[in-house]
Please model this.
Amino acid sequence: MSEVWETHTPEETWRLGYELGEKAGAKEVYCLDGDLGVGKTVFAQGFAAGLGIQESVNSPTFTIVQEYDQGRLPFYHFDVYRIGDVEEMEEIGYEDYFFGEGVCLIEWPSLISEILPDTAVWVLIEKEMERGFDFRRICVKRP
Model:
């Protein structure tokens, strides 16, 4: 099942992330895909806020995963852009995150597709410059 939204401002992209975060449940994995600069971090910040996380959320590019525990559920924000291979995910114990009591949001999920659960929700953010600099098409595909 897929749903498609169009946003025209970063605030609208944040708001969609917020709404999905409000509905997210324990043991869910969200795969956030899209080119550099499409608004993945803005979406992730809204998603975290929807979970009740009030601290600043930034892309964990150099740490692979950032943990946030003060929301209604633990939130694990992954950025696997710089990962060398899936063994690095095994070293950090990805299964504890993916199958634990929190919610995972993974940026650049295609790089680790072989270890992603079949139940993952895929979120694809795309630009269409001819529709405006801040226009985004966001497709959410549930299993």
